[in-house]
Structures
1.
Amino acid sequence: MPMPPALTALAPAAAANPNPSESEIYDRQIRLWGAEAQSKMSSCKVLYVNVTGTSSEILKNLILAGIRGAIADGRTYPDALAETPTSFLPPAERTGKDTDHKDDDDDDDDDEPDQKRIKKMSVAKAIQPHILELNPLLEECEINEQEIPSIPSHFFAKFDIVVASNIGVQQAIRISKATTSHNGKFYMVHSFGLYACALIDLGEGHTYRKEIGKDKLSGVLKLDPYTSLEDMLMQKKMGDVKDRWHKSGPPMVYTKYRAILNYCERKGTFPTCTEESAVEFVELTRAFLKEQGLESSYLGDEDDLKQLANTATADVSPVCAVMGGVLGNEVIKAISGKGEPANNMLLFDGMDGGCKSFALK
């Protein structure tokens, strides 16, 4: 199923009518998905936990499709997004400086005569006005500026969809439980260099209708097998994770992501681009692989592991765009109930350009 057409593509129709109706604005996607699906999308609300390059792509796609969004991200802006490509903030804003000229009599900072520091605020607060600009038909984006561990579980339970990025295992499990226990859907996505991984928990009772041909749908089907996020991340040894395509062990992209999550759980933060962090990552990852029943060299030699550490939180624009488009499509399928959803993992490998699903059982 293709991604929703951008609102800008409908500009000629909007120009002809200065006050276009919602049905006119979303005419192309109503014809694509149907009025019932569009109605479900309009009544749905998606929460984005920590804005990253990939989640901002999902946010952009769904906002344009008429799906309301909310953001929970108390990290400090612009520091947290200095090296993160987003669909909402130009590079000049993410560096922490703007290009407005100072007054001639302002000599407080001779080193930056033509620039001034952008006021620091939360990431959620910085992105909030840009979302309304993108689709004025939607209400103002709700924001939560608390640190994620401080946000109570019942806050997440009120959203239909939660998309989380750059969070550790324990917080991911907590949020997914709160979301799915109230019939919500949870997506955990992380991009690192040329790779990206998404873990999906649609809840035990999720149903859908499979597409048959061009205009037909199957009867109601139940997601099977269902595996919760907790079971995915707290499963028995990864060495036992195999299928017909991965007979020697789990997919490489997934294993790399689990190594990054393992470091985060042990150190309380993701790896950084320092030699000290890289050395720690190598030691922790080799021990982790052995604990999981895999060879210590499963992810390569020391240099390979150090490279993985250095790119553990690196958002690459093309990777974010592809994964964001795929996951945006998955969210729409989950909301509408049309189309077979990915169960329960999506893996993107930028080395071959493939995005594949893998089911953890």
2.
Amino acid sequence: MAAILAVQPGSTLRCRTRRDALPEGYQYRDDGCEVAPACLKCPLERCRHEEPNGLLTVRLRARNPQIVASRRDGETVDEIADRYSLSRRTVFRVLAEA
């Protein structure tokens, strides 16, 4: 059972707080990642660390519309697969998801 602290009326309870416990007292380092040298200079809408599968998701989000556009422009699946170094199955999957 936890002890209850009795405080006299009119008195103040003073406790010590660590200097680094508050966000104002902490020096944040903005190291960035592979995308940008600093988080505040990052071109991404959402941090790669917040995305499922991280940077892979960010790269696929940029690549997949290009694959769809290439197919609309008349390129064959084999040509697209060769250009992006993918298997034919991956190209078909990307096109099916679009």
3.
Amino acid sequence: MIFSFQICKFVQLNKINMHIFYAPDINTNIYSLNEDESKHCSTVLRLSVDDLVYLTDGKGCLYKTKIIDNSKKKCIVKIIDIITEYEKRDYYLHIAISPTKNIERFEWFLEKVTEIGIDEITPILSNRSERKVIKIQRLNKVIISAMKQSKKAYHPILNPLTKFEYFVKSRINGKKFIAHCMKTKKESLKKLYTSKQNALILIGPEGDFSPEEIALAKQNNFLEISLGTSFLRTETAGIIACHTINFLNGY
């Protein structure tokens, strides 16, 4: 990819009036929005030629662009500046969570953790999981919408549905935690986590992890944690875990 202007790394932008579009395939100075995005840009936002919009490739690059053709079917923009590693965090957060029976609740989880800040999400299939099928394409649309709305330049990785037993045995870099509701000796996440550490947090299904799964996680160096005294829904627990890590890192 070749661009004809200086690339910046650290720039503060006023996000209030920033219109951002997802462009994972961007590779030239001139870019055409797809028909849906073009209609949104021209008809909904009522943007005109010479107005500024921003594109992101979902990999940390934020492209400042100027509209050169505001067609409702093919809005064309010209890149005038690039910011790399836009708002890149110095830690990595991965949440592995059992999808909820009501898929709308899981979509809500994806939306909120994307807005808060997360790097990777793995849906896990555990013994008590009630949902055994997910549609990755649909869920990625939820993530993209939340990424655009919250002005993010990174698209969180969404992995395929993975069996719990396989996942906990895989090699993972960082501190590993499992949140569950069983009455065992547990410390709060904020006591066990140190800022700037990479973290992986396991969140169970509505019926919680089974004792055998908790034992297997412990055998693979996962630390048992509490997310508070309330009995939380799966998606709520995932959002609290995400917010706690971001809060402890000053975000």
4.
Amino acid sequence: MTMTNSTHADVAKFMAEQLKEKKYLYQEDIVWEIQNLFGEQFVYENENGNLAIDKTVLRHFRTLTPDAIWEGGERMWRARERYDAPNKRGQD
């Protein structure tokens, strides 16, 4: 069942809450949760044929989580740790 009338900001807030609760957020898991909870309008199939999070959702998510770190090798976001460089953000 999907939540109707949700916005990109609502989805980003959900992601931020999940990150705060779990301390990490795997892209592969959260993209399916977004599709199931909020609908297909917030995800898309990327050039590799994988399900990806809408870029507008990600922009809102970055605004809500300035201290989140993207770990590209693990394909996940995580909370910033003391050992992270101050400017480390990564690409998402």
